[in-house]
Every structure is written in C-alpha cells, then in structure tokens.
C-alpha cells in the first residue's frame, strides 16, 4: 500500500517534469539542437590541423631531383606551394604574410644530396604563431624525410643521414583533430544537460515558490531527487545516442570500443553531472545565481580543463592539479579511448573509479543539503 | 478534544548578514477545530514565517509547535503529509495546464485514481474552472490562479488547511468567491482553516482572529470581541463648510482623536473616550458639525490596539506652502482616448480623463486592470499606441527636461539604492534633480525632518523597515518640489498605520496646490481621492467622485455601499453588459 502511494507520487512527479521538459524550448535546444551545432562547429569549423599551408619554394637550379621533391610538396595535403625565382622575393612574400614558410633548394642541391656534411635544403618559417610554425616545420620535415627515403630506395643508394626518423602515429593515423574533438563534444553536451539544465530547473522551483508547495505534501526527499534525476537522466542519454550517431555517421569517427561500455560510462558520467547540478541548485536557490555557478564550475572547466581542446599534459602543474576535480576530464579520457583506441581497460577502469568516487561525494552532499526545509 | 494547532513560547529569528532579525517572539496561541481563523497583521508582521513554521519548513529557536498532535519540528514530514498548504504564489506550475496541475497534486497526495473523476468534477464546479481545464496555469487570471491553487490544496480534503495570503493581489470579486469556497469546505468536511491576510476587512469574515504585529501576538479573539472595546467611541463627523479632507486634517492633529479617516462625505473618528463634546468645542462656532455614532469595525480595533503599542504619531507640515494659484480650475493633466497595445493584447483601451490643479486623482483597479500601463504612459516611460495626452501642457515623452522638473514620481517598487544609506540616497536624487550646494543641503534637511528619518540617516536603504522605505521614496520624489506628483501603488504592502501617515502627508500636499495622481488597489483608499476612475481589463468602468461611485451601486436601501461593494457592483455590471 505504502509502495503504491510512493510509486504514484514518483510517477506523478516524473510526468510533470517530462511535460515541462517538452514544453520548454530551452531544454530541447540544449539536449538536441546544441549538440548538432557544436558537433558541426568542432567537426567542420574548428580544426587544430594545418591544411594547405602556403609555402614558398625557391629552386635555384632545377633538375630531376628538385622536380621530384617539389612534386611531393605539391601532392601533400598540408601545403599549397608558390614558386619564387630568388630567396629575396620569397622573403618579401613571407614578410607580407602571403606565405608561412620557405623551402630553399640551393644551387648545389644535387651535389649535397648524398654528401655527409652539407645542409641540403634551407627552411624558414614565420614564427609569430609558434604553434603554426612548429606544425609547418614538422610537416616540411616529414615531407622531406619521406621523399628522400623513397628517392634513395629508387636510386638504390644508401642514405648517409646522421639520424633516421621513423614516424608512426597511433590511434589517429591521419592526425585529424576532428577525431578527438568530436568525442569531447559529447562530454560537453552531457555536462550541459546534467549540470546547467538541472541546476536551472530546480532553482526555478525555488524562484517560483513551487518548492514550498511540493514540500508540504507527503512527498519524500528521495522521491523528489529521483523525480528530478530520472527525466533528465533519460534526456541526457537520448542526447548521448544522438551524439554517438552523428559522430559515427556524419563525422566518420571510428568507434573502436564496445557499445555497452559507452552506455555504462555514459550513465555514470550523467549521474555525476546531475548530482553536481542538483547540488548547485539547492545551494543557490535562485535561477540566475544557479546558472552562473553552473557555467563557471561545470561548463567552462569541462571545456577548458577536461583535455577536450587543450592537452592536460602541457598545462602548468598547478592547473594540471586542478583538472583532477573536473569530472569531465575523466569522461573525456574515457570517450576518446573508447572511440579511438577501444576497450583499453587500464585507462577506462582508472577513470571510472575516479568518476565513482566523485559520484559518491556529490550524492552525499546533495542528500545532506536537500532537506525539506526552506532555510 | 485536542486543538489542531497549539503553539507555545515560539521564537524564531533570521540572520541577515551581521544582523539578526526577530521574526517571531514568544508566540502563543491555539486554533479551534472546524472553524476559520484569520492570521492578521501588516506586512512584515511574521505571518508567512509562522505559516512556514506550522508546516515544518523552518526550524525554530525556542518553544513548541504542535500541529495535529505532532511536533512540527521533529516530525516535519508527518505534518507535511497531513496538512494542506497554499503558499503565497499558489504553488502552481505555470507551464502545466489546470488539469495537469490537479493531476500532480492528486498523485502527490495519494488520491486514488478511481475517485478522481468525481473529485475533479466537484472542485471544478466549485471554483468555476471547468471550462479552462486545458488552459496553462500561467495564462489564467490572478483570481483563477488563486482558485486553482486552492483546488490543488483541496484535492484530498485535509484536516488542517493553511492559506498564506490567498487574497493578495486578487480582485474583490475573486476574493469574495474564495471566501465562499473556504466556508463551504469548512461546513462540509469540518476542516480547520488558518488564513493569513493583510486586508483588515477580511477579519470580519473569520470566526476568530489572531492579530500579529512585529512578530508578537497582540490579541486573539472573535472580531466582535476586538471591536466591542471601542463601543461608543466611533463616530462619523460631517460638515457642510469643510471638505472631508480639511476636516480630517484638523481632526487628526487632536490628542483626543485616536484615528480619523475619510469615509464617504465625512470623517470617521475613533475618540479616546466616549465623550465627543470636546471635539465639537474645538471647532469655531461658525463651523457646524454633524456627529453621529457608528458601529466599530475590526480596523478601528486594530488601529487603536497598535497605536497603544506606542507607535509613531503622524507628523505633518511637510508642504512648503506655495501660493495657491488663482486659476484653481486649471486642467493639469488631460488624457484623451488613450490606447496601448502589446502585440494583439490591448492593455489600455479608450481611456479619457482630466485632472485639475490641486486634486488627488485616483486610478483604482485590481492587478492587471491597466493602471500601471496608463501611469507609465503619463510619465512618458511608455509610448502610446493611440490617443493623446498632456501633462502640464506637454507629452512628457518628448518634453524637455524643464517639464520633467515639474513632475515627481514614486515607483511601485521603491526605486532606492539598497546599499546606499538614507543620506546617500537623498544626496544622489537631489543631484539628479539638479539641486546642489546650499539648496541641496536645505532640501535634504527638510526631507529628514519632515519624514522623521533622523534615526536612520546612516542606515542602508535596504535595511529600513517597509514603512520607512516608503517614507524615503516619498521624500525622494519631493526633493525638487514638484507641482505634479505621480504615485504608483505607494501603499502596496505597507501596514495600515504607515498608510494613514502616507495619506496625511498626501492630503497636505494637495491642500498646498500639488496635483497628485495615484494608483491603488486598496478600495478604501479611494475615499482620499477627490475624483477617480475605476479600471478593469484596460477600460474605464466609471469616473467621478467617491460618493458618485457609491451612489451608482446603491440599491433601494438607505445604507451607502462601501467602495469595495461599489467596485464589485460595477465589475458585475460590466460582465452582464459584455
């Protein structure tokens, strides 16, 4: 009998919450429109890769070898080469930002090619944007190495290079930033639904005085929390599926892991961010403040400190330390692993453990703070 | 038989920053079963805090609160599942329909599914909401929201029903209907009702009244017991030679007069003793007074009880007497076929009136009647959709600063800077009005003296008691000695004593030739106006002097109806015509 009443209260609350979600354009926008926008933005708009870098090529004495080398620059996706007669002309173009780098094949190119000491090609890059400069330099070196390896093989001669580099990129052979940005977007969206949306809707109950009315009913604490969590959990998971589908189908992100693991870890992360959202809302009790706190403590860290865009290992140690309290960090790691590497158990288990600890801490806090009291 | 509610030695305080506010102090009372008890007190008296304590929503400092035999502090959940409570804003979900709101509360309160159809039908019939079950709660009028809130509280008839200011901001017709529903429920189910209100006239509808003031219970008893003590001390004084306002001004300054209030064409007076000869003698023999005894009402008791608590004496003499203009009949404000649309919605339609110099002109109506919209257009804050208006000969929206200098404006939500002190607020507004140096000093000193703000000079505006906030706002609006004063709901949420004070000051200003335009939803305040318009759903229902309004609604009987009765009559007339 008691259980029936309890079930009735819970289902009534869930029905009410679902109706409110369906009628509130902002919930739908955050769960289903924003993911699409973000995925498009990060999938198509934002790229951390360099493509079609304009470089200048100066060939002082054209022959078969230089032709072969410039050919491989032409064929590379990374470059769009421009030719200059003299190095001076090329340097002018570099100053005017028409090109980002110069490859200079001097007139002794053919002679120096297989010699032991002489520099064969000279490279200059515009160092203003250091990131871009490093990338350009790296790509030029890569193109050069692969060309000279092939060239030597074809000639049947041994290379006399001091050091031989062998490149091999794992997990993302094309080094496409899209492939690791898209899984990160999934984490961002789930943070938004779990933390921001939930914080706002609970705070709205305080703002509009409905919380008071709900409190003076047989409704129990646990039922209230469950009544809020379940609908938003479902909303978040629906959004996860949409994201997953878009990532695989539209952006052709490979999915190496197993689906059930995605589902399990997704649920876990959803619960963590819901708990954070509830905690914010019971403490703020005001939509505006709750929104601000949710963005500053939930959304922004998930964006900046989760390793989604900025590599955590290249952050200063103090900031690296802070990232440990950002739940999104663990989930981004899980997602990127599942998508690009597969079920790598050591990585997944460590991150799942971290999320579980956070879940326990946050739910304890929520239960402690959500008393049926207005003070 | 035990009492449904027993409160003993209850105290409760809140921390607000460094200060501690005593919300309830040593409160003791018992509620009798099966009747309606009114919890009456001005805003800030502690009514809502007490309601929430009874619901177990607030922990208490000391004392004991027993609700339906349970301890409200330790068994809060048990109490909460047994009582029904309607909070101030009705606790409705505005994005859910009438039916969905009802369903939610039926689920929460465990109403069996098979009983619902019948229960809903009764409730919908009772509240008259049957035609609107699919409408979103947010799109209901204030009166309908209130009834839906009540219906939700009554889905399962409780043993104890707690209603926190259910009638605030609701039009008189809906207020009357709400009382009917409550009484019907009490009779049918024998439930106990505790209802809080700031409207003193509602006290008379209660079987018993608990009077709360500044967190203390002043008295408890039936409304008759309250007013009995004033038997033989209440009078209606009329005079052919003096206007009610002049009469009131003279009477209110006397020490043997507890209270003087304009009512109809005379002044209602509570005297200190059953003897009125001294009052008669104090007027020159050339002035003829007609003094007749009237029956005391609850408000009389309320005022005299609170005045005995040693409350402030009204100090007037705030107006710097300007020479009365010779052309006293000069039209100052002219409004012609005013209209304002918001999209498809017509907020104000075809409103016309004129206001003469030195008049107090009232805009009366329930919330949402279009008063504030009309007001904003007059002040030049909102462009008109159609029609014409002029204030002191110009449309303020396009007028030069000079024209604006003639106008003082007191907004509904007192536009003070909460974290500036009283002095700083005054200084800021004085300079905003272009008063500097000696002139500024002089006006600030005037404001502090005339409004008795001396004790609060350095206090931050947000920490002032409500009545003082109102005084400060009023002072600010008068800094530059305007000729025309716009007062938007100046008395909303202010206790009856502060309201009297406010009107005493306004009267004096009008007597000195300042034109006052005022909006209010307190029907009894209409008596202070020289002329007024009654507005409902954006149109003017009637226009004239308070007496003319009441005569419109007078039936065959000799008794003149109150302003509220006149208002209800006019609204119902409109309903029948439409």
Layout of secondary structure:
The complex is a heterodimer of chains A (375) and B (578).
Chain A: H1 2-23, H2 25-45, E1 53-59, H3 64-75, E2 79-84, H4 87-95, E3 101-105, H5 109-112, E4 121-125, H6 130-155, H7 177-207, H8 210-215, H9 221-249, H10 259-284, H11 287-304, H12 317-323, H13 327-340, H14 345-369
Parallel strand pairs in A: 1-2, 1-3
Antiparallel strand pairs in A: 3-4
Helix pairs in contact in A: 1-9, 2-7, 2-9, 3-6, 7-9, 7-10, 7-11, 7-13, 9-10, 10-11, 10-13, 10-14, 13-14
Chain B: E1 5-16, E2 19-31, E3 36-40, H1 47-54, E4 62-67, E5 70-71, H2 76-82, E6 84-86, H3 98-108, H4 113-127, H5 142-153, E7 160-164, H6 172-189, E8 192-197, E9 208-213, E10 216-221, H7 223-228, E11 234-239, H8 244-252, E12 257-263, E13 266-271, H9 277-282, E14 289-293, H10 298-308, E15 331-342, E16 345-356, E17 360-364, H11 371-378, E18 386-391, H12 401-405, E19 407-410, H13 422-432, H14 437-450, H15 466-477, E20 484-488, H16 496-511, E21 515-520, E22 531-536, E23 539-544, H17 546-553, H18 563-577
Parallel strand pairs in B: 3-8, 3-9, 6-7, 7-8, 17-21, 17-22, 19-20, 20-21
Antiparallel strand pairs in B: 1-2, 1-4, 4-5, 9-10, 11-13, 11-14, 12-13, 15-16, 15-18, 22-23
Helix pairs in contact in B: 3-5, 5-6, 8-16, 13-14, 13-15, 17-18
């Amino acid at each position: 009998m008691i259980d029936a009443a309890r079930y009735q209260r819970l289902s009534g609350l869930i029905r009410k919450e679902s109706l409110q979600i369906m009628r509130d354009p902002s919930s739908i926008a955050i769960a289903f429109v924003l993911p699409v926008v973000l995925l498009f933005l990060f999938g198509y708009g934002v790229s951390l890769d360099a493509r079609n870098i304009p470089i200048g090529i100066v060939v002082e004495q054209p022959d078969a070898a230089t032709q072969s080398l410039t050919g491989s620059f032409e064929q590379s996706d990374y470059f769009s080469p421009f030719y200059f007669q003299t190095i001076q002309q090329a340097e002018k173009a570099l100053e005017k930002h028409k090109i980002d780098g110069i490859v200079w094949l001097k007139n002794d190119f053919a002679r120096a090619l297989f010699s032991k000491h002489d520099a064969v090609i000279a490279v200059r890059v515009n160092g203003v944007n250091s990131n871009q400069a490093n990338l350009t330099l790296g790509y030029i070196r890569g193109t050069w190495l692969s060309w000279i390896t092939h060239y030597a093989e074809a000639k049947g001669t041994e290379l006399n290079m001091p050091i031989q580099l062998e490149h091999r990129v794992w997990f993302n052979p094309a080094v496409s930033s899209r492939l690791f940005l898209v899984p990160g977007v999934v984490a961002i969206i789930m943070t938004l639904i779990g933390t921001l949306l939930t914080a706002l809707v609970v705070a709205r109950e305080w703002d509009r005085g409905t919380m008071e009315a709900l409190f003076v009913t047989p409704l129990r604490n646990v039922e209230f929390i469950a009544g809020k969590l379940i609908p938003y959990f479902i909303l978040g998971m629906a959004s996860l599926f949409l994201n997953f589908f878009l990532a695989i189908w539209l952006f052709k992100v490979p999915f190496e892991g197993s689906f059930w693991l995605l589902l399990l870890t997704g649920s876990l992360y959803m619960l963590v961010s819901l708990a954070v959202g509830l905690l914010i809302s019971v403490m703020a009790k005001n939509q505006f403040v709750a929104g601000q706190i949710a963005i500053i403590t939930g959304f922004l860290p998930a964006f900046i400190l989760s390793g989604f865009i900025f590599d955590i290992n290249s952050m200063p140690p103090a900031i690296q330390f802070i990232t440990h309290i950002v739940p999104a960090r663990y989930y981004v790691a899980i997602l990127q692993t599942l998508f690009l590497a597969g079920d790598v158990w050591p990585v997944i288990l460590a991150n799942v453990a971290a999320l579980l600890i956070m879940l326990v801490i946050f739910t304890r806090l929520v239960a402690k703070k959500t008393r049926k009291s207005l003070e | 038989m035990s009492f449904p509610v027993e409160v003993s030695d209850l105290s409760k305080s809140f921390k607000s920053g460094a200060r501690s506010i005593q919300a309830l102090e040593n409160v003791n009372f018992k509620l009798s079963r099966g009747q309606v008890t009114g919890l009456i007190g001005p805003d800030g008296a502690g009514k809502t805090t007490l309601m929430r304590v009874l619901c177990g929503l607030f922990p208490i400092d000391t004392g004991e609160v027993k609700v339906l035999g349970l301890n409200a502090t330790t068994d809060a959940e048990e109490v909460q599942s047994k009582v029904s409570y309607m909070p101030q804003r009705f606790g409705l979900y505005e994005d859910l329909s009438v039916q969905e709101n009802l369903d939610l509360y039926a689920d929460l309160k465990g109403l069996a599914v098979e009983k619902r159809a019948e229960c809903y039908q009764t409730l919908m019939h009772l509240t008259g909401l049957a035609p609107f079950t699919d409408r979103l709660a947010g799109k209901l009028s204030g009166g309908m929201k209130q009834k839906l809130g009540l219906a939700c509280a009554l889905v399962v008839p409780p043993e104890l029903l707690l209603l926190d200011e259910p009638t605030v901001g609701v039009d008189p017709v809906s207020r009357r209907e709400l009382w009917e529903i409550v009484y019907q429920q009490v009779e049918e189910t024998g439930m106990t009702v505790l209802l809080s209100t700031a409207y003193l006239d509602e006290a008379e509808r209660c079987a018993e009244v608990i009077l709360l003031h500044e967190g203390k219970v002043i008295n408890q008893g039936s409304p008759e017991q309250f007013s009995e003590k004033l038997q033989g001390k209440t009078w209606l004084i009329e005079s052919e030679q003096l206007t009610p306002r002049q009469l009131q001004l003279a009477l209110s300054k006397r020490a043997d007069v507890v209270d003087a209030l304009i009512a109809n064409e005379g002044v209602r007076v509570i005297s200190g003793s059953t003897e009125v000869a001294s009052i008669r003698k104090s007027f020159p023999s050339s002035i003829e007074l007609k003094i007749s005894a009237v029956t005391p009402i609850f408000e009389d008791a309320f005022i005299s009880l609170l005045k005995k608590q040693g409350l402030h004496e009204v100090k007037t003499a705030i107006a710097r007497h300007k020479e009365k203009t010779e052309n006293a009949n000069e039209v100052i404000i002219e409004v012609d076929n005013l209209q304002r649309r918001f999209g498809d919605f017509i907020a104000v339609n075809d409103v016309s009136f004129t206001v003469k110099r030195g008049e107090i002109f009232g805009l009366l109506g329930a919330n949402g009647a279009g008063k504030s919209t009309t007001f904003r257009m007059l002040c030049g804050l909102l462009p008109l959709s159609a029609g014409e208006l002029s204030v002191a000969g110009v449309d303020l929206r396009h007028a030069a600063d000079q024209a604006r200098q003639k106008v003082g404006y007191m907004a509904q939500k007192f536009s003070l800077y909460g974290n500036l002190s009283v002095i700083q607020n005054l200084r800021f507004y004085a300079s905003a009005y272009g008063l500097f140096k000696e002139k500024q000093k002089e006006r600030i000193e005037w404001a502090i003296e005339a409004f008795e703000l001396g004790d609060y000079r350095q206090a931050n505006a947000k920490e002032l008691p409500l009545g003082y906030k109102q005084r400060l706002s009023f002072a600010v609006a008068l800094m530059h000695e305007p000729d025309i004063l716009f007062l938007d709901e100046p008395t909303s949420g202010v206790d009856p004593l502060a309201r009297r004070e406010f009107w005493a000051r306004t009267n004096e200003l009008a007597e000195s030739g300042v034109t006052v335009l005022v909006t209010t939803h307190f029907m009894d305040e209409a008596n202070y106006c020289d002329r007024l318009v009654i507005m409902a759903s954006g149109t003017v229902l009637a226009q004239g002097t308070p007496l003319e309004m009441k005569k419109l609604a007078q039936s065959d009987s000799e008794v003149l109806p109150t302003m509220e009765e006149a208002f209800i009559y006019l609204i119902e007339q409109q309903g029948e015509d439409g």
